[in-house]
Write the structure tokens for this entry.
Amino acid sequence: MKPVNALLAATGTTIFTVMSALAVEHQAINLGQGFPDTEGPEDIVRVAAEALLDHRNQYPPLTGLPELRAAVAAANQRFYGLEIDPAHGVVVTSGATEAITASLMALLNPGDEVVLIEPLYDTYLPVVKLLGAVPRLVRLEPPNWELPRAELEAAFGPKTKALLLNSPMNPTGKVFTPDELAFIAALLRRHDAYAVCDEVYEHLVFAGARHVPLATLPDMAERSLRIGSAGKTFSLTGWKVGYISGPAALMSVVAKAHQNLTFTTPPNLQRAVAYGLGKPDTYFDSLAGGLQAQRDLLDAGLTRLGFRTLPAQGSYFITADFSPLGFEGDDVAFCRMITQEAGVAAIPVSAFYVGAAPRHYARFAFCKQIPVLEEALRRLERWVAKTPLTALA
């Protein structure tokens, strides 16, 4: 038999699937995979349910229902002052992962170079490679995740076609500052490069930080594709509704990529998301407030148990250094151990790097109900109290 695609064949099962399966096997509380354990807003779910019965269940338009494209454009204006053409500047996708893929497909030719910032979401690199493009990796270092400007500048060159920017960032929880964004924008202008901006956690930013889309900076709107996620904004991750907004010249090619991936997204979910994007400011303001309380609870609890936690300015996640506990193994061994023995699952941060990586950090998701987080901390406390970590490493 002739060989199949070498890149995909060599790609292992994602760490999220592995750890979630291990959590089920050991009846562990899953603080690994980033999904809320509560339903999204009842009114949005009801709109989706009722829309199934209104006899509009055939193929919707390729780029998305007009009402959702209008709602996405209105949200860009409402929250960031961005002028987006709803007819030609928005494409609705089956989740943000498809949005990322379609955006990269629209921009890249084989041999083009793409700047990626580590630690990174695990879909980015395989898609870049499948398209025949060349990744140029720049690494943020814990504990402060500061942008290494000299290294970033060195990653750009004559073949640079695009930068993929994730802010608020998974897994670090970093929100890029206006000064960092200005530096990135200057590089993009100098090298005539595009930006694919993964902003799925745009509304999940905590006190002391502010999300600024790169597209709002001078000359950036014309070269930026901005990706949002209804799953993250409305705690409905299983719906897989994403959206891309940008200049019409780029979006026409994005639409062609989308056409060759999923073509369209369920119309009832699109109508419900359009309704949701029109909810009052109080809804969007409350998102980060409730989540911040969950972050603070988990942060304080992990710190009390001896972990060294890192700043989390946004997203669903907090990174914790477990080396102060005395465990001498790597992060994969640590996460497997706490899943099996403490009954709490986390994700090894090395999974978000290529090659050599920090090996003493675990990522915990705090997008869970307060009682669930409290029980997870009780389990970890019992485990820490009885476990000779050094001996078991």
